[in-house]
Amino acid sequence: MRQGRAADELPLMPLGQSPRNRRELRPKVLWIGVWLVFLSPIVHDLASGHHTAGGTLAGSLGLVVFVGIYLTLVFRNMSRSALPARLVGALIALLGALAILLSVTLGPHWLGLFVYVSVACGATLPLRAAYWTIPLTAGAMTLVGLYVGEDDALNLVITLLLIGFAMTGVRQLVRTTVELRQARATVAQLAANEERLRLARDLHDLLGHSLSLITLKSELAGRMLPAHPDKAAQQVADIEQVSRQALVDVREAVSGYRRPRLADELAGARVALTAAGITVEVPAEPGLEGVGEDSESALAWALREAVTNVVRHSGAGRCTVDLVRRQTLDGPVLELSVEDNGSGGPGAAAGNGLTGLTERLEKAGGSLDAGGTRHGFRLVARVPADSSGDVGSGA
To answer: Which site from 57, 148, 168, 316 is most exposed, i.e. has the minimal number of CB atoms within 10 Å?
Structure first.
């Protein structure tokens, strides 16, 4: 199975975090500002001239205070320094009081303010509190609507309930996203700590015995040196041999840590090509049964080099990565092919590290073919699929 390029683009703003710059602030402001559409009947009522000058002034001031409290609640709820719970409750109660007062005194056009009270309840209050304050807001709006003679209050009640409970779902989604992000960071930190501990254990196992032996033989050589220089020389020779072996062990351990893994490279290829705007098809699982570490490492290096060439030099819009097993006269092989529809760039078949990659594959018993095709550029790397045998370059 293959995984194509994700259909949905990543959002411009991180969900569940306060905006860190203007680019992240714009979509958040747009998300909050779009709800202000329910103010259009209220603004139209103020501008219609149906009220006295004093009523228009009082309504304008009340509307400014109401919107200011609402925006304060929603914006601070998204930030890292959220308001205290008691202050949030007091502000929501003030919103409800303003909505009732303005609707009763200025008419049914102002019933839309209750929608903002419902949104504030769903976005800022705990779930248990939101589950009873939203219906309470709907009930208060129904009573006020009946008082001011609004026949369509029932339709607005349905809208109020839907929006209020939808905001509780959005809040839960944001909270879950934040928790997942924190859990992912914790897992990464634990993995890094575990890797450090593993490296420390391996170095201790590799060097502990060798250094202890070197120390012991050095003391022994020092005691033998005045009376038995020939025996002291033998001890020094043993010290040299032990130190050389310890150096070899450390180098092997370090090279093992630096050895690339094909599964990691496949995941990295998907991310790199997608980020470059290239449609990519990558195998979900590498299937490395029977493949030795040297062969896997060689394929991983081949994939990394091929993806680098595609991103930097090809100008391609599509790239396909295939990983298949084949049976040849020399035995089973694992074949990695990377094909794109670009030009390949100048000298892609001969340069860009392909020479060193060929040598690396041949050292692992494999081979490399790279060159232009009718539709772009194709790189094929082969390694033995049986860790007990090698595959010649003719495979």
So the answer is: 57
DSSP string computed for 242-276: HHHHHHHHHHHHHHHHH---HHHHHHHHHHHHHHT
Task: Return the C-alpha torsion angle 132, 133, 137, 142, nearest 10.
Answer: 20
pTM over 0.90: no
pLDDT of residue 19: 53
Half-sphere exposure of 336 (CA within 13 A, CB side): 33
Cβ atoms within 10 Å of 219's Cβ, excluding its own: 11
Q: Is 204 left (phi over 0), alpha (psi -120 to 50) or beta?
A: alpha
Q: Which two tokens stand for residue 68?
A: 């200011």
Answer for the pair 350, 301: CB distance below 8 angstroms, yes or no.
no
Q: Count H helices, E strands: the chain?
A: 11, 6
Query: What's the CA gap between 217 and 210, in Å, rounded?
Result: 11
The burial class, CB within 10 Å (0-12 / 13-18 / 19+), for 321 is: buried
Contact yes or no for 150/142 (Cβ under 8 A): no
Contact predicate 218/207, CB 8 Å: no
Instruction: Name the β-bridge partners of 339.
Output: 320, 378
User: For residue 306, what pLDDT is reported?
Assistant: 86
pLDDT number for residue 337: 92
Q: What DSSP assignment string belongs to 72-127?
A: HHHHHHHSSSPPPHHHHHHHHHHHHHHHHHHHHHH-GGGGGHHHHHHHHHHHHS-H
In this model, does residue 206 exceed pLDDT 80?
A: no
For residue 380, what are the β-bridge partners?
Answer: 337, 369
